[in-house]
């Protein structure tokens, strides 16, 4: 079958090229009338609607725009979406997105879809973000992003929006592409896609393989692996069917925060001895660790695994039109995903001198000792210079954390749509039923390690020495300060049912009312192992958290309704005005219980409003949307790392939030050889009714403070030049993020920053193109987040000259060669 398939592709390639020769490039077609793009996300019905006709905010990122942006991660692909604050400095997975002032990290406020079905039912499933289970490659043709609006009507766990990655479809002729990419960070990557008719069916195969050292080089190959998918589809006069199988086996590194310092000139830079642009705490000395567990067995911590995902995904899809103006469709997906997520986390940063002072009481446990010292674990004779080691004299209390997360899921979405006339008006009515079942195991084991502060940090031992400098006692174990400060063993299941009803009511040729209601219910059941501490006879093994042999069970159910109502008035085909109100919610999920069977989560509710103006022409394209978001009684957890207990202290807090904002998205095309596109988000995100009682018993009132991590101003401008008869495209992106805060107390401020990226495409021939990219051309050290392990209510780094933060990844160069056939 493979041989005949390739033969068909090659045989049809010449005919396809002949028919396509002289056709405009995809970006030129899109730029000519961006509002004419058909949108399939966030709606249901029997007919098609374009972006300019939508009664909600939607961004479409087309094939050519994706190639020129060349995002290095799923999160990075969303930076051109207004209303979204994205943070992708952690690498190819485990990013953060905050949408329209919804104060939830990771992917807790938006849903990731692939071909209209969730990648993962809960995209923020307790240490398992959906972007870890999905990779962008050339099998994806475009992205559609719905902001707020009806996202929560059609999809679970999507109160603030939905991102739909839409796969490439096979046409009437054989075609394909191969793209090879090289990068300055030892990146080698190959993408491919090939599709062709095979009798009455259409067959496509595609995927990628990649090996990459990492811009922040850990001393080993951080990213390696890939995925492959095959799709078989067929169309009849009144129906379609497709089967898609995808297998991913991929490993990506996770970049955590690094030690930064405010210099005398007021600028923030990496501490001396650490490269802020390319350095990372992880390195050869934290690459492997045999960590002692409570029962005496060893946990093999292997940081070369990073976030290692093995995933099999099977998707079936059909549509059927039994009669005119009727449509029945179903998409079902089964996934079997195993994830090992390892990382080196900088829990705390302090001077070596202060650490030794804090630990002075240990001298009583070492008769004959006169002082405490730090020695290198791999070079015990090398004494750590507390005044100026590595030019900084600082140490990191690092966490070596390993999580194992196998998950199996089945999801199915069925819709019945009917369009009919009534009283001179037209209704396009859809009834839908969504089902999801997931089964997850959760395991975690972590230890703390003393590390110096330099690129690829080295392990340190805490020792007591005599008057002559001889080691009397060692309190650590090859750099491990405390084994087992985290331990979890849990299993759970969740089942979700949802019914929804939507109607598009065309009252006049210009006026349409859209609305709908969704009723969703979920039940979750499982067990969580109860914990105890054991002492295995050494300082490093004196307080290992482990299971006590008992388990706590949970069995909870939740339900809630979502509803939305919008209106669209279309002045002309190219201009319109819309307004919408949505009462959204997010039900608790399995992730709320994986570490605590007695958790008492509740349904989180949101009120969202938006008013938008749309105008599209060959010269100007403009979408302006004012939005309002009220998040009711959000629960969030404040984490603080405690060195003495070797554990993370957690505190649950509650507050309301309110955000008013304006989103702008548009393009200007004055001449064929130049265009300017851009996005802007202006918002005022605030906490309402937040008070906090600190450890000293003082009540702190944070009412009216800014939401953490969210800037009040975000800008992105992309000027582009089309030269040499459109064979050459050169564009730059200037991105600006305003100041943000690390904590709700607004005591730690991350300054504003700007960065510039360059990209170019040159068509050597109709079939062969070359691409070039420069990421972070100005080598900006813009800080994207502080240290969440120092507390997100009242951050422990407040007032500190040296602190942990995560800046943008440094300047990098990439080039790609793509051949179409």
CA radius of gyration: 28 Å
Q: CATH class, please?
A: Mainly Beta
Number of beta strands: 45
CATH topology: Maltoporin, Chain A
SS field, number of helical segments: 5
CATH-level-4 superfamily name: TonB-dependent receptor, beta-barrel domain
Shape annotation: globular
Report strand %.
over 45%
Helix content: under 10%
Overall structural domain count: 1
CATH architecture descriptor text:
Beta Barrel
In words, what does this structure look like?
The protein has a single domain (1-300, 497-522, 561-821), classed as TonB-dependent receptor, beta-barrel domain (Maltoporin, Chain A, Beta Barrel). It is built from five helices and 45 strands. It has a 22-stranded antiparallel β-barrel. A five-stranded mixed beta sheet has the order 3-8-9-6-7. It has a four-stranded antiparallel beta sheet with strand order 16-15-44-43, with no helix packed on it. The protein is globular, with a radius of gyration of 28 Å.
């Amino acid at each position: 079958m493979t041989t005949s398939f390739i033969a068909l592709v090659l045989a049809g390639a010449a005919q396809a090229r002949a028919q396509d020769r002289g056709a405009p490039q995809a970006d030129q077609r899109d730029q000519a009338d961006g509002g004419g793009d058909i949108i399939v996300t966030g709606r249901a019905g029997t007919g098609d609607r374009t972006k300019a006709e939508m009664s909600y905010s939607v961004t479409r990122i087309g094939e050519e725009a994706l190639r020129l942006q060349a995002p290095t991660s799923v999160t990075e692909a969303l930076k051109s979406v207004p209303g979204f604050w994205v943070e992708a400095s952690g690498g190819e997975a485990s990013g953060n997105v905050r949408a329209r002032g919804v104060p939830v990290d990771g992917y807790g406020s938006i849903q990731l879809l692939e071909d209209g079905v969730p990648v993962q039912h809960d995209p923020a499933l307790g240490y398992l973000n959906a972007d870890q289970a999905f990779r962008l490659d050339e099998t994806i043709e475009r992205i559609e992003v719905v902001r707020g609006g009806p996202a929560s009507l059609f999809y679970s766990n999507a109160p603030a929006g939905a991102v739909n990655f839409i796969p490439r479809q096979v046409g009437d002729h054989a075609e394909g592409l191969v793209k090879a990419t090289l990068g300055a960070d030892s990146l080698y990557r190959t993408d491919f896609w090939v599709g062709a008719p095979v009798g009455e069916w259409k067959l496509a195969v595609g995927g990628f393989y990649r090996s990459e050292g990492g811009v922040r080089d850990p001393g080993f190959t951080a990213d390696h692996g890939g995925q492959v998918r095959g799709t078989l589809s067929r169309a009849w006069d009144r129906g379609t069917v497709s089967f898609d199988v995808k297998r991913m086996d991929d490993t990506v590194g996770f970049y955590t925060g690094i030690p930064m310092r405010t210099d005398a000139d007021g600028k923030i830079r990496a501490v001396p001895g650490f490269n802020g642009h390319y350095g990372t705490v992880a390195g050869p000395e934290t690459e492997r660790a045999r960590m002692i567990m409570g029962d005496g067995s060893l946990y093999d911590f292997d940081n070369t695994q990073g976030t290692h995902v093995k995933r099999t995904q099977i998707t079936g899809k059909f549509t059927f039109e039994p009669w005119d103006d009727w449509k029945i469709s179903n998409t079902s997906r089964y996934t079997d995903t195993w994830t090992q997520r390892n990382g080196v986390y900088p829990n705390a940063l302090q001077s070596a001198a202060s650490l030794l002072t804090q630990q002075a009481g240990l001298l009583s446990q070492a008769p004959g000792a006169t002082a405490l010292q730090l020695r290198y674990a791999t070079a015990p004779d090398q004494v750590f210079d507390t005044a100026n080691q590595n030019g900084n004299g600082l140490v990191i209390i690092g966490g070596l954390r390993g999580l194992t997360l196998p998950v199996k899921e089945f999801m199915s979405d069925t819709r019945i749509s009917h369009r009919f006339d009534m009283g001179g008006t037209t209704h396009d009515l859809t009834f839908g039923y969504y089902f999801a079942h997931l089964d997850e195991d959760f395991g975690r084991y972590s230890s703390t390690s003393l590390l110096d502060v330099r690129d690829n940090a080295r392990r340190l031992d805490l020792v007591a020495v005599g008057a002559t400098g001889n080691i009397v006692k060692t309190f650590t174990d090859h750099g491990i300060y405390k084994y087992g400060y985290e331990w979890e063993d849990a299993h759970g299941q969740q089942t979700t049912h949802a019914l929804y009803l939507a109607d598009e009511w065309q009252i006049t040729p210009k006026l349409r009312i859209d609305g709908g209601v969704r009723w969703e219910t979920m039940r979750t059941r499982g067990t969580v192992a109860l914990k105890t501490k054991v002492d295995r006879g050494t300082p490093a093994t004196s307080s290992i958290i482990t299971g006590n042999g008992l388990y706590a069970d949970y069995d909870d159910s939740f339900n809630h309704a979502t509803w939305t109502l919008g209106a669209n008035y279309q002045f002309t085909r190219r201009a319109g005005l819309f307004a919408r109100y949505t009462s959204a919610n997010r039900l608790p999920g399995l992730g709320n219980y994986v570490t605590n069977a007695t958790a008492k989560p509740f349904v989180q509710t949101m009120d969202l409003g938006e008013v938008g103006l749309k105008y599209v022409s060959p010269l100007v394209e403009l979408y302006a949307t004012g939005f309002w978001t009220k998040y009711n009684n959000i629960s969030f957890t404040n984490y603080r790392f405690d060195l003495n207990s070797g554990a993370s202290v957690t505190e649950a807090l509650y507050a309301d939030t309110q955000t008013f904002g304006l989103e702008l998205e548009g393009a200007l095309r004055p001449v064929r050889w130049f265009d300017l596109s851009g996005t802007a988000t202006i918002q005022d995100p605030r906490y309402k009714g937040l008070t906090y009682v600190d450890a000293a018993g003082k009540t702190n009132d944070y009412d009216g403070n800014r939401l953490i991590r969210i800037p009040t101003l975000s800008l992105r401008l992309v000027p582009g030049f089309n030269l040499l008869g459109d064979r050459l495209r050169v564009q730059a992106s200037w991105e600006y993020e305003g100041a943000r805060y690390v904590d709700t107390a607004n005591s730690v401020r991350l300054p504003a920053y700007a960065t510039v990226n360059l990209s170019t495409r040159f068509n050597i021939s109709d079939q062969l193109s070359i691409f070039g990219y420069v990421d972070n051309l100005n080598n900006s050290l813009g800080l994207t987040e502080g240290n969440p392990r120092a507390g997100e209510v009242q951050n422990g780094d407040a007032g500190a000259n040296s602190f942990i933060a995560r800046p943008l990844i440094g300047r990098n160069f990439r080039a790609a060669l793509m051949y179409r056939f």
